[in-house]
Specification:
By secondary structure, the chain is mainly alpha-helical. The chain folds into 2 domains: 3-84, DNA polymerase, domain 1; 109-271, Orthogonal Bundle (hpI Integrase, Chain A). Helices cover 55% and strands 4% of the residues. The protein has 13 helices and 3 strands; from the N terminus they run αααααααβββαααααα. The chain has helices at 3-15, 22-42, 47-58, 63-84, 109-117, 122-134, 138-142, 172-183, 208-221, 230-243, 248-255, 260-263, 271-281; strands spanning 149-150, 155-159, 165-169. Helix 2 packs across helix 4, helix 5 packs antiparallel against helix 6 and helix 6 (122-134) crosses helix 10 (230-243). It is globular. 29% of the residues are buried.
Length: 287
Protein backbone atom coordinates (compact mmCIF):
# COMPACT_ATOMS: atom_id res chain seq x y z
CA UNK A 1 0.00 0.00 0.00
CA UNK A 2 1.42 3.37 -1.05
CA UNK A 3 0.77 5.22 2.22
CA UNK A 4 2.52 8.43 1.18
CA UNK A 5 0.34 8.96 -1.89
CA UNK A 6 -2.85 7.98 -0.08
CA UNK A 7 -2.11 10.26 2.87
CA UNK A 8 -1.42 13.18 0.54
CA UNK A 9 -4.73 12.58 -1.26
CA UNK A 10 -6.49 12.33 2.09
CA UNK A 11 -4.91 15.63 3.16
CA UNK A 12 -6.52 17.32 0.18
CA UNK A 13 -9.81 15.58 0.96
CA UNK A 14 -9.75 16.90 4.55
CA UNK A 15 -8.90 20.43 3.43
CA UNK A 16 -12.02 20.40 1.23
CA UNK A 17 -14.24 19.53 4.18
CA UNK A 18 -16.23 22.52 5.38
CA UNK A 19 -16.15 23.24 9.09
CA UNK A 20 -13.01 21.22 9.88
CA UNK A 21 -10.87 23.33 12.20
CA UNK A 22 -7.13 23.75 11.68
CA UNK A 23 -6.58 22.11 15.07
CA UNK A 24 -8.63 19.02 14.12
CA UNK A 25 -6.92 18.78 10.72
CA UNK A 26 -3.46 18.82 12.32
CA UNK A 27 -4.50 16.24 14.92
CA UNK A 28 -5.87 13.87 12.25
CA UNK A 29 -2.72 14.10 10.13
CA UNK A 30 -0.50 13.49 13.17
CA UNK A 31 -2.64 10.52 14.20
CA UNK A 32 -2.41 8.99 10.73
CA UNK A 33 1.32 9.63 10.44
CA UNK A 34 1.91 7.74 13.70
CA UNK A 35 -0.29 4.83 12.62
CA UNK A 36 1.41 4.58 9.22
CA UNK A 37 4.89 4.55 10.81
CA UNK A 38 3.79 1.70 13.10
CA UNK A 39 2.28 -0.34 10.26
CA UNK A 40 5.38 0.10 8.13
CA UNK A 41 7.47 -1.38 10.93
CA UNK A 42 5.05 -4.31 11.21
CA UNK A 43 5.13 -4.85 7.45
CA UNK A 44 1.46 -5.87 7.34
CA UNK A 45 -2.06 -4.60 7.87
CA UNK A 46 -3.83 -7.68 9.20
CA UNK A 47 -5.91 -8.13 12.37
CA UNK A 48 -2.81 -8.97 14.39
CA UNK A 49 -1.19 -5.68 13.39
CA UNK A 50 -4.38 -3.78 14.23
CA UNK A 51 -4.52 -5.41 17.69
CA UNK A 52 -0.87 -4.56 18.24
CA UNK A 53 -1.48 -0.94 17.37
CA UNK A 54 -4.47 -0.72 19.70
CA UNK A 55 -2.33 -2.14 22.51
CA UNK A 56 0.36 0.39 21.64
CA UNK A 57 -2.18 3.23 21.99
CA UNK A 58 -3.55 1.81 25.27
CA UNK A 59 -0.06 2.07 26.73
CA UNK A 60 0.46 5.63 25.52
CA UNK A 61 -2.78 7.62 25.60
CA UNK A 62 -5.95 8.39 27.52
CA UNK A 63 -9.26 6.94 26.35
CA UNK A 64 -10.45 10.22 24.83
CA UNK A 65 -7.24 10.48 22.77
CA UNK A 66 -7.50 6.87 21.63
CA UNK A 67 -11.10 7.41 20.47
CA UNK A 68 -10.09 10.53 18.52
CA UNK A 69 -7.20 8.68 16.88
CA UNK A 70 -9.44 5.73 16.07
CA UNK A 71 -11.96 8.06 14.45
CA UNK A 72 -9.22 9.57 12.29
CA UNK A 73 -7.90 6.15 11.29
CA UNK A 74 -11.33 4.75 10.41
CA UNK A 75 -12.08 7.83 8.33
CA UNK A 76 -8.80 7.43 6.47
CA UNK A 77 -9.39 3.78 5.61
CA UNK A 78 -12.99 4.48 4.53
CA UNK A 79 -11.49 7.00 2.12
CA UNK A 80 -8.90 4.43 0.97
CA UNK A 81 -11.68 1.89 0.32
CA UNK A 82 -13.53 4.36 -1.91
CA UNK A 83 -10.38 5.40 -3.74
CA UNK A 84 -8.64 2.05 -4.21
CA UNK A 85 -11.27 -0.65 -3.86
CA UNK A 86 -9.74 -1.97 -0.64
CA UNK A 87 -12.02 -4.82 0.39
CA UNK A 88 -12.53 -3.92 4.04
CA UNK A 89 -11.58 -1.22 6.51
CA UNK A 90 -9.03 -3.03 8.75
CA UNK A 91 -10.15 -0.97 11.77
CA UNK A 92 -13.90 -1.29 11.13
CA UNK A 93 -14.37 -3.97 13.80
CA UNK A 94 -12.61 -1.95 16.53
CA UNK A 95 -15.06 -0.32 18.94
CA UNK A 96 -14.52 3.05 20.56
CA UNK A 97 -13.69 2.92 24.24
CA UNK A 98 -16.28 3.85 26.83
CA UNK A 99 -15.67 7.39 28.02
CA UNK A 100 -14.50 7.90 31.56
CA UNK A 101 -16.22 10.77 33.31
CA UNK A 102 -13.22 12.78 34.38
CA UNK A 103 -13.93 15.95 36.33
CA UNK A 104 -12.62 18.98 34.46
CA UNK A 105 -9.66 20.57 36.23
CA UNK A 106 -9.85 24.26 37.02
CA UNK A 107 -8.00 26.95 38.95
CA UNK A 108 -9.28 28.95 41.87
CA UNK A 109 -9.77 32.67 41.13
CA UNK A 110 -6.66 33.45 43.20
CA UNK A 111 -4.57 30.93 41.26
CA UNK A 112 -5.72 32.39 37.94
CA UNK A 113 -4.81 35.89 39.07
CA UNK A 114 -1.44 34.75 40.48
CA UNK A 115 -0.57 33.07 37.19
CA UNK A 116 -1.42 36.13 35.11
CA UNK A 117 0.43 38.49 37.46
CA UNK A 118 3.52 36.25 37.35
CA UNK A 119 3.74 36.72 33.58
CA UNK A 120 6.59 39.02 32.57
CA UNK A 121 6.00 39.41 28.81
CA UNK A 122 3.28 41.69 27.45
CA UNK A 123 2.31 39.27 24.67
CA UNK A 124 2.07 36.30 27.03
CA UNK A 125 0.11 38.28 29.60
CA UNK A 126 -2.36 39.33 26.91
CA UNK A 127 -2.78 35.67 25.89
CA UNK A 128 -3.46 34.52 29.46
CA UNK A 129 -5.82 37.42 30.15
CA UNK A 130 -7.76 36.68 26.95
CA UNK A 131 -8.02 32.92 27.61
CA UNK A 132 -9.22 33.43 31.18
CA UNK A 133 -11.50 36.36 30.33
CA UNK A 134 -13.33 34.64 27.48
CA UNK A 135 -12.87 30.86 27.77
CA UNK A 136 -12.12 30.56 24.06
CA UNK A 137 -10.32 27.51 22.67
CA UNK A 138 -6.61 27.54 21.92
CA UNK A 139 -7.29 27.02 18.20
CA UNK A 140 -9.67 29.97 18.25
CA UNK A 141 -7.10 32.31 19.76
CA UNK A 142 -4.55 31.13 17.19
CA UNK A 143 -6.91 32.10 14.37
CA UNK A 144 -7.73 35.58 15.68
CA UNK A 145 -6.68 38.72 13.81
CA UNK A 146 -6.27 42.21 15.25
CA UNK A 147 -9.52 43.22 13.53
CA UNK A 148 -11.40 40.65 15.63
CA UNK A 149 -10.93 42.82 18.72
CA UNK A 150 -13.58 45.50 19.24
CA UNK A 151 -12.17 47.47 22.16
CA UNK A 152 -14.90 50.10 21.91
CA UNK A 153 -17.76 47.65 22.49
CA UNK A 154 -15.80 45.17 24.60
CA UNK A 155 -16.25 42.15 22.32
CA UNK A 156 -14.08 39.79 20.30
CA UNK A 157 -15.09 37.90 17.17
CA UNK A 158 -14.26 34.20 17.24
CA UNK A 159 -14.41 31.55 14.53
CA UNK A 160 -15.27 28.32 16.33
CA UNK A 161 -15.94 24.71 15.45
CA UNK A 162 -17.91 24.13 12.29
CA UNK A 163 -16.77 27.57 11.03
CA UNK A 164 -19.39 29.14 13.28
CA UNK A 165 -18.69 32.75 14.15
CA UNK A 166 -19.67 34.17 17.52
CA UNK A 167 -19.18 37.38 19.46
CA UNK A 168 -17.78 36.96 22.98
CA UNK A 169 -17.62 39.67 25.67
CA UNK A 170 -14.15 40.34 27.01
CA UNK A 171 -13.11 42.03 30.26
CA UNK A 172 -11.26 45.32 30.65
CA UNK A 173 -8.11 43.66 32.04
CA UNK A 174 -7.81 41.53 28.91
CA UNK A 175 -8.53 44.47 26.60
CA UNK A 176 -5.92 46.59 28.37
CA UNK A 177 -3.36 43.79 28.16
CA UNK A 178 -4.05 43.31 24.44
CA UNK A 179 -3.78 47.07 23.90
CA UNK A 180 -0.43 47.26 25.72
CA UNK A 181 0.96 44.38 23.64
CA UNK A 182 -0.31 45.75 20.32
CA UNK A 183 1.17 49.19 21.01
CA UNK A 184 4.61 47.54 21.03
CA UNK A 185 3.80 46.59 17.42
CA UNK A 186 2.62 50.09 16.54
CA UNK A 187 -1.06 49.08 16.54
CA UNK A 188 -3.30 51.58 18.34
CA UNK A 189 -6.72 50.62 16.96
CA UNK A 190 -6.73 46.88 16.18
CA UNK A 191 -10.16 46.80 14.53
CA UNK A 192 -8.68 48.33 11.38
CA UNK A 193 -5.67 46.01 11.18
CA UNK A 194 -5.90 42.74 9.22
CA UNK A 195 -2.90 40.99 10.77
CA UNK A 196 -2.59 38.07 13.22
CA UNK A 197 -3.40 39.12 16.78
CA UNK A 198 -0.45 37.27 18.29
CA UNK A 199 2.92 36.88 16.57
CA UNK A 200 5.92 34.65 17.21
CA UNK A 201 9.53 35.83 17.19
CA UNK A 202 9.61 35.44 13.39
CA UNK A 203 6.70 37.84 12.96
CA UNK A 204 4.23 35.16 11.84
CA UNK A 205 1.05 33.85 13.46
CA UNK A 206 1.59 32.20 16.85
CA UNK A 207 0.61 28.53 16.73
CA UNK A 208 -1.62 26.59 19.14
CA UNK A 209 1.39 24.54 20.20
CA UNK A 210 3.31 27.69 21.13
CA UNK A 211 0.31 29.04 23.05
CA UNK A 212 0.16 25.80 25.07
CA UNK A 213 3.87 26.11 25.86
CA UNK A 214 3.38 29.72 26.98
CA UNK A 215 0.54 28.77 29.33
CA UNK A 216 2.52 25.87 30.77
CA UNK A 217 5.64 28.00 31.24
CA UNK A 218 3.88 30.69 33.26
CA UNK A 219 1.93 28.18 35.34
CA UNK A 220 5.28 26.70 36.41
CA UNK A 221 6.67 30.19 36.99
CA UNK A 222 3.73 30.92 39.31
CA UNK A 223 4.46 27.66 41.18
CA UNK A 224 0.92 26.36 40.77
CA UNK A 225 0.20 22.89 42.14
CA UNK A 226 -0.14 21.28 38.72
CA UNK A 227 0.49 21.90 35.03
CA UNK A 228 -2.01 24.32 33.47
CA UNK A 229 -3.19 24.13 29.86
CA UNK A 230 -5.38 26.52 27.85
CA UNK A 231 -8.25 24.07 28.40
CA UNK A 232 -7.82 24.36 32.17
CA UNK A 233 -8.26 28.14 31.78
CA UNK A 234 -11.39 27.47 29.70
CA UNK A 235 -12.81 25.28 32.48
CA UNK A 236 -11.83 27.91 35.06
CA UNK A 237 -13.63 30.63 33.11
CA UNK A 238 -16.86 28.61 32.95
CA UNK A 239 -16.68 27.46 36.57
CA UNK A 240 -16.08 30.93 37.95
CA UNK A 241 -18.96 32.35 35.89
CA UNK A 242 -21.26 29.63 37.18
CA UNK A 243 -20.16 30.24 40.76
CA UNK A 244 -20.94 33.94 40.31
CA UNK A 245 -24.51 33.15 39.24
CA UNK A 246 -24.31 33.14 35.44
CA UNK A 247 -26.90 30.93 33.73
CA UNK A 248 -25.85 27.91 31.69
CA UNK A 249 -27.36 29.21 28.44
CA UNK A 250 -25.18 32.31 28.58
CA UNK A 251 -22.09 30.24 29.34
CA UNK A 252 -22.99 27.91 26.47
CA UNK A 253 -23.10 30.84 24.05
CA UNK A 254 -19.76 32.22 25.21
CA UNK A 255 -18.02 28.83 25.04
CA UNK A 256 -19.46 28.04 21.64
CA UNK A 257 -20.94 24.69 22.70
CA UNK A 258 -23.42 23.24 20.24
CA UNK A 259 -25.24 21.39 23.03
CA UNK A 260 -26.21 22.51 26.51
CA UNK A 261 -25.35 19.02 27.77
CA UNK A 262 -21.68 19.77 27.09
CA UNK A 263 -21.89 22.93 29.19
CA UNK A 264 -23.66 21.03 31.98
CA UNK A 265 -20.41 19.18 32.70
CA UNK A 266 -19.49 22.24 34.75
CA UNK A 267 -22.52 22.08 37.06
CA UNK A 268 -21.15 19.32 39.27
CA UNK A 269 -18.22 21.55 40.13
CA UNK A 270 -20.49 24.05 41.83
CA UNK A 271 -22.94 21.96 43.81
CA UNK A 272 -22.21 23.91 47.00
CA UNK A 273 -22.88 27.17 45.20
CA UNK A 274 -26.11 25.85 43.68
CA UNK A 275 -27.33 24.69 47.10
CA UNK A 276 -26.50 28.08 48.56
CA UNK A 277 -28.54 29.84 45.85
CA UNK A 278 -31.40 27.37 46.32
CA UNK A 279 -31.47 27.83 50.11
CA UNK A 280 -31.58 31.59 49.73
CA UNK A 281 -34.05 31.82 46.86
CA UNK A 282 -36.57 28.97 46.96
CA UNK A 283 -39.64 29.62 49.14
CA UNK A 284 -39.82 25.97 50.26
CA UNK A 285 -36.09 25.55 50.92
CA UNK A 286 -36.31 26.44 54.59
CA UNK A 287 -39.56 24.66 55.30
Amino acid sequence: MDYDTLLERYRMHLLDQKGLSVETYRAYINDLTDMIAFMRERGSLDKRAVRAYMMHMHNQYARSSINRKLSAIKGFFDFVRRETGLETNPFAHVRSLKRQDVLPRFLSPDEAVDMIEATEKLRDQAILELLYSTGIRVGEIEGMDCSDVDRERGFIRVLGKGSKQRMVPVGKHALNAIGAYLRTRGVNDPIYVNAPLFLNKNGTRLSSRSIRRIVGRWSRHAALRSHVSPHVLRHSFATHLLDAGADLRSIQEMLGHASLSTTQRYTHLSVDKLMEVYDKAHPKAKG
